[in-house]
Amino acid sequence: MRHRSLLILTTAITTGALTLSACGSRDDKGGDAGGSKNTTVVIGVDAPLTGDLSPLGQGIKNSTELAIKNANKAKEVPGVTFEMKALDDQGQPTSGQQNATKLTGDKNVVATVGPLNSSVAQSMQQVAQANNMALISPANTTPDLTQGKDWKQNNRKRQFTTYFRTSTTDEVQGAFGGQYAYEKIKAKTVYVIDDQKTYGVGLAAAFAAKFTSLGGKVVGTEHVNPEDRDFKAIVSKAKSTNPDLVFYGGEYPAAAPLSQQLKDGGVKAPTLGGDALYSPHYINLNKKADRDYATSVGKPVEQLDSAKKFIADYKAAGYKDAYEAYGGTAYDAAWAIIQAVKATVTDNDGKLPTDARAKVVEALNKVKFDGVSGPVSFDKYGDTTNTMITAYQVDGTTWKSRHSAEYKG
Amino acid sequence: MHELPQQLANGLILGAMYGLIAIGYTMVYGIVQLINFAHGEIFMVGGFGALTAYLVLPDGTGLLLALPLMIIGGIVASTAIAVAAERFAYRPLRGAPRLAPLITAIGLSIALQQAIWKWYPDAKKARVFPQFQGDAIDILGATVQRGEIFLLVAAPLCMTALGLFVAKTRTGRGMQATAQDPDTAKLMGINTDRIIVIAFAIGATFAAIAAVAHGLKYGQIDFRMGFITGLKAFTAAVLGGIGNIYGAMLGGVVLGVAEALATGYIEEIPGMTQFGGGSWKDVWAFVLLILVLLLRPQGLLGERVADRA
Lengths: 409, 309
Prior knowledge:
Number of helices of chain B: 11
Strand order of the largest sheet of chain A: 7-6-8-9-10-13-14
Shape of chain B: globular
Helix content of chain A: 40-55%
Number of domains of chain B: 1
Low-confidence stretches of chain B: none
Shape of chain A: elongated
Helix content of chain B: 55-70%
Order of helices and strands of chain A: HEHEHEHEHEHEHEHEHEHEHHHEEEE
CATH architecture of chain B: Orthogonal Bundle
CATH class of the largest domain in chain A: Alpha Beta
Order of helices and strands of chain B: HHHHEEEHHHHEHHH
Strand content of chain B: under 5%
Oligomer: heterodimer
Mean pLDDT of chain B: 91
Family (chain A): Belongs to the leucine-binding protein family.
Radius of gyration of chain A: 22 Å
Largest sheet of chain B: 2 strands, antiparallel
Radius of gyration of chain B: 19 Å
CATH topology of the largest domain in chain A: Rossmann fold
Strand content of chain A: 15-25%
CATH class of chain B: Mainly Alpha
Keywords (chain A): Signal
Protein name (chain A): Branched-chain amino acid transport system substrate-binding protein
Pfam families (chain A): Peripla_BP_6 (PF13458)
Number of strands of chain A: 14
Distance between the termini of chain A: 62 Å
Low-confidence stretches of chain A: 17-36
Number of helices of chain A: 13
Strand order of the largest sheet of chain B: 1-4
């Protein structure tokens, strides 16, 4: 019997050990603030730079870097040189929290762009708040992060004064999806699947609420694990309910095989998902992606005049990875920080104040400019005031935008 | 119980893949009492080996034509890694306390994942794996994908070949002898070092075949695919009775079918609605494992042997 217990013990240890994937990043040398006239201000980045969400994370990192480069080149804030410090969270809340501690520990970091995942944000908010450091996510969409868990009862309360985001919430995005599914796709029945992560569950709930309030019917619900790649058992269940549409609340690494297996298994309905499906990799990994839908925040970056410069700059910078779904909002998040630093420095006779972080947080509430994704400003919860959403559909091998609208509820 | 044939087929196919990987755990454990936790990564490397073979072939090569070469590519890659791991990571630790090789295996597992992530082109995200074109096939009321046919053919074929090899050949009998008593086997003139290398190589070969099946089935491979799948295969090996090759395959199939049935039907039991569905399938699989280990600590087909550790 002895080695049996060893087997069980080792299984437990390995699971723990391999889940805890930390990433090292040594602190940079302390800035040379004293003496020289030029002050260095560091903008932190926290995003999944490795792992299966790394394409999205790399897009966020590169876009932030681009904003910093442009600000330095244009001398946007006289006397201040911006630098970037990017840390990898691998999409894990535990790594995110370690990174938040690291970033707040570096006194040159005034504010941070990130994270990608709502679940990671939940673990970082406390740390950022305790250290008075602004955290601006280009991608978090869970309403709870800004408005508290009672937002559904319309009992909204700002959770953290230091947390902002340049992407709109699942409440808006999911409801837009529900409306789009009912009115434009003309679906009457839907099978709802989520991945049990903060983002996926919230999006699916908001979608289902709107869809049923319009008169649609949810014929089945299912939950999967985000690491799963085999969904055959779920496909068999979904098939027996014969839905007009399958809604997936989750991210493309699982959504792509799920959609393919659904169609392989004889479910004719297209899949609809949120912004985490809106990636070219969704189509690469899914041979039956044709006719699937995704909603994403903002207007298609390619269609906005304000974005043309961003796209040209991004190309010129020669990044290996594409800017992906959150490049525009990441650029805007970084630019909002730069504008806040500018306001802070201007108010302080051209010098960075000693309590720069707190001043930047204050300034962020008043920031207003025309960004890559549209007009950027934050409301009383820290959410973006821009509620533009676009529905996309896979046409052959690319995403084509079908419908953009400002969601009014 | 609607869709029962389909759910059984789903489970059987998934289970056959677990079984093929479980062979690697069970053979190595049977002979050197080492839990080779890097085996999941050997499986993963096999997948990338097969993909490499496919990519070096001229564009437009039919998949059916490429498949044998992909299998060979996968086997070469995974066997090379497994044999090197045995020679340089495990052999120096033979005779060391049991926890030392175990920790080494965990370290090796992380190292292999990171090596692929770092050096294989574009492996930072999932790589697309070629898949068979064409519609699914109906077998006895169940829909089976073309890619899955490969698994349904390969798994029984491999098991038969392995069974014959172990029972009939000199090397196979040498393996049995080494498993029973390595010291006596050595005294009888069996080169146990060679036997151990062969056990690793066979495990890696089966893992590579499973990896090709994985790629054909899901159309993608990534550097982390060996972790969860490896853990499941290890569970299958324990469930079937670790050390027993038929037990590994049986354990795999039982585990796969249990997962499919748990996803499909648990929630139809009155009062169990919230414990059903895809999110709870792993829980039910491990409940099954615990029940089996409580009633039959040696696993389904394992023999009750005196513990040598």
